[in-house]
Amino acid sequence: MQWKPDRHSHLSLHIQIVDWMKTHIERGEWTVGTKLPPQRKLAELLGVNRSTIIDVLDELKADGLLEMKRGAGTFVSNNSWNVLLNKSQPDWHKHIQASIHKPNYHTIQLINEYEQDSCIIRLGTGELSPDLLPTKLLEQSLQSISLNARDIGYSEPKGSKRLRIILSDYLQKRGIHTSPESILIVSGALQALQLISVGLLEQQSIIFQEHPSYLNSVHPFQSAGMQMVSVKRNERLAETLKAGSGKKQSLFYTIPTLHNPTGSSLTPEERKRLLEICAELQIPIIEDDVYHELLFEESPPAMKSLDQTGQVLYVGSVSKTLSPGLRIGWVVAPEPVINRLADIKMQTDYGSSAFSQEIVAHWLSSGLYEEHVASLRQQLKGRSLFVESILNENFRRIATWEKSMGGFYIWLRFNEPVVNKALFLKLIKQKVLINPGYIYDPSDLHHIRLSYAYATLEELKEGLYILLNNI
Ligand SMILES: Cc1ncc(COP(=O)(O)O)c(C=O)c1O
């Protein structure tokens, strides 16, 4: 033992020896069960009185770091790590509970966890199955992408100019006439919602959402302190919005095409009416249009294409069509809004991945994207017909559903309120993962969001069979 306390230090010998012993335990040099030399020997080694050693050992015993075993000596106690951890770590539970962002529902946390299990059948996943992703083509297209040094530096606040020019061209086909200056590239549509929630609204603003709503499963507005007001389709829209908004700032979030989770779409008349009512009440609209390319028939016009006053914030993404892992989406909005969101985005992540932006620019400009999406629609249609035939054969007596018009989902409604957490957990035990309706509307115990996009056909068949046996 080389170390000795410093007699010239302003710290007492007692404190120095206590610190020295604690450090040995903390660093794991004296592991649990390590026997300390006898008191007399310690005093001799450290060059101090035995009474100093007795005081030090008493203190560390009282703290729970050391323990005496009668007739055997002094040992590092079993509990020493717990004692040190409790003392040295901040109270993270308290930090977590007091923090701003809401946690996911427990059911969603479990979904995220069990999605990693390769043996589980994913009946609800809102993602393309690996065999629908154009992995090989994506890989090949990397050869065609040329980069210069500017491309791979920090991007412009609004994102790659090239991609924005290409997008403004592409969006014309959706009836949206916009300049690259009014487009912001974001890291997925979800980031667009987060930027809007912190960049355009005061706390306690009202967010009108459809009922049920995708927003209940992700919380970007709830975490920013907004009040959520659900609006049922066909409800007296004007009255509800008027009564709900009052003097507060408000915003209407809608997925008019292939709604998540219901798969339904607003008719052109419903779109017009919603626009008119919101225009009259000066309520901006977020049009979340991430599924529109997956409609099996021709798509109704985007609400943004009918927007004369810059009231619609239009959100798109390649996550549902090309690859969610690229994390590329966009917002189209009046320039001052885009400038504001871009400013916050720069404070958040300094821009989206340059590589992902180049890949998306290449796919859109070369025509690869549209070719791929056309074939994807056909494959999704085949899958939807397959699932509907299983439903028709086996679920008619216990559930109802609408024929899928495109996208990923069938909003399956059971006649009885059977879709509770117990069913969710029971199915997990049988290796089937569902998205219960209650994550989109906490009071809903009737629905399951069935996705035909992810699992293989065999898995869909087996999973539905297991589901049926558990109802
Ligand atoms: C309606 C809707 N909006 C946004 C998102 C998020 O998309 P992204 O992966 O582009 O963030 C999803 C994903 O499930 C969605 O269903």
Automatic annotation (TrEMBL):
UniProt entry tagged with the keyword Transcription: yes
CDD domains attached to this UniProt entry: AAT_like, WHTH_GntR
Cofactor(s) for this UniProt protein: pyridoxal 5'-phosphate
> Which stretches make up the HTH gntR-type domain?
11-79
Domain of life from the UniProt record: Bacteria
Arranged from A to Z, the UniProt key words for this protein are: Aminotransferase, DNA-binding, Pyridoxal phosphate, Transcription, Transcription regulation, Transferase
Q: Which GO terms describe its molecular function?
A: DNA binding; DNA-binding transcription factor activity; pyridoxal phosphate binding; transaminase activity
Q: Which PANTHER family match?
A: HTH-TYPE TRANSCRIPTIONAL REGULATORY PROTEIN GABR (PTHR46577), TRANSCRIPTIONAL REGULATORY PROTEIN (PTHR46577:SF2)
User: In which family does this protein belong, per the annotation?
Assistant: In the C-terminal section; belongs to the class-I pyridoxal-phosphate-dependent aminotransferase family.
User: Per its record, how is this protein called by name?
Assistant: PLP-dependent aminotransferase family protein
Q: Which organism is it from?
A: Psychrobacillus soli
